[in-house]
Amino acid sequence: MGVVEEARRVALAVLDTTSTTVNDLWVSFWSMGGNADVLDLDAYVHGLAPFSASDKLALEAAVEEISAPN
What we know:
mainly alpha
């Protein structure tokens, strides 16, 4: 499994096991340079839609930010 695919899996786990919402994830994703809208992000995280390479990198950065201990 690649690093980017791992970010998708971790994003799904964060959404499933914490109080983080898809909107919270999207705001972080967007602040990292992501271009997809919240529905496309949700679909990608759940394995239902493709994502551009640049959006995958932005998701990876967003997941790292959200998963980092405070």
